[in-house]
Design a protein that fits this description.
Elements lengths: L6 H18 L4 H21 L13 E3 L4 E11 L3 E11 L6 E3 L4 E9 L11 H4 L2 E8 L2 E9 L6 E2 L7 E2 L4 E5 L3 E7 L3 E3 L6 E2 L5 E5 L7
Helix pairs in contact: 1-2
Organism: Chlorobium phaeovibrioides
Pathway: Phospholipid metabolism; phosphatidylethanolamine biosynthesis; phosphatidylethanolamine from CDP-diacylglycerol: step 2/2
Subunit structure: Heterodimer of a large membrane-associated beta subunit and a small pyruvoyl-containing alpha subunit.
């Protein structure tokens, strides 16, 4: 299954790859092999990058689900204008090999949606969360406020986010993607505890990354 968020890009990349493969047939053998091999590898990578596997939402209440596949880069205490004092920010780095479709972390209503133009530094650079191209999203759920940001990286040049303000959303729902290597920062408010550690691998729509303090340890 391939994501509709990348359909136009995938069609263009596939056309370039197939065109190059056909062109390689006209070249001398010593040139045709490397050119054709490179085109085939590029086509396979493009298909792999835009894959969109189904995911199973974990059961339970008082949980926050990972919005992205990747590796947890850092977990830090912070004060945030949307979630308030005593918050924690969890940063997930998405390599080009990860699934790049993003998913909603909690059921609620979108009450913040703001795009920021910016640079395209390496996504694992801590400054990228403030300086890079990014989309901020805030969700309110039963009095709880959750904030997360799609951050474009060095290779990621386009953020896809079709959400609308005041749109009701459901945990695990696909809501967009970041094309070609990126990062997602998620800010949880006071009273919620991270369920992952630095270096942990996450799967969007499946991995529990935070839990309400009163339910922590009850799995």
């Amino acid at each position: 299954m391939f994501t509709p968020y990348g359909r136009s890009t995938l069609v263009k990349l596939a056309a370039v790859s197939v065109g190059t493969l056909l062109f390689s047939i006209l070249l001398p053998l010593q040139a045709a092999i490397p050119v054709g091999s490179a085109a085939a590898i590029f086509l396979i990578f493009s298909l792999w990058f835009f894959r969109d596997p189904n995911r199973s939402l974990p059961p339970g209440k008082g949980i926050v689900i990972a919005p992205a596949d990747g590796t947890v880069m850092s977990i830090k205490a912070c004060s945030h204008p949307f979630t308030g004092n005593g918050s924690s920010i969890i940063s997930i780095f998405m390599s080009p090999l990860n699934v790049h479709v993003n998913r909603i972390p909690v059921t609620g209503t979108v009450t913040l949606l703001q795009h920021h133009p910016g640079s395209f530094s390496m996504a694992f650079d801590e400054k990228s969360g403030e300086e890079n191209e990014r989309m901020e999203i805030g969700i309110e759920s039963n009095g709880m406020k959750l904030h997360f940001t799609q951050v474009a990286g060095f290779l990621a040049r386009r953020i896809v986010c079709p959400l609308s303000l005041n749109e009701p959303v459901t945990a695990g729902k696909r809501f967009g993607m970041i094309k070609f290597g990126s990062r997602v920062d998620i800010v949880i408010p006071a009273g919620w505890l991270p369920e992952v550690e630095r270096g942990a691998k996450t799967r969007a729509g499946e991995t529990i990354i935070a839990r309400l303090a009163t339910t922590a340890g009850n799995g």
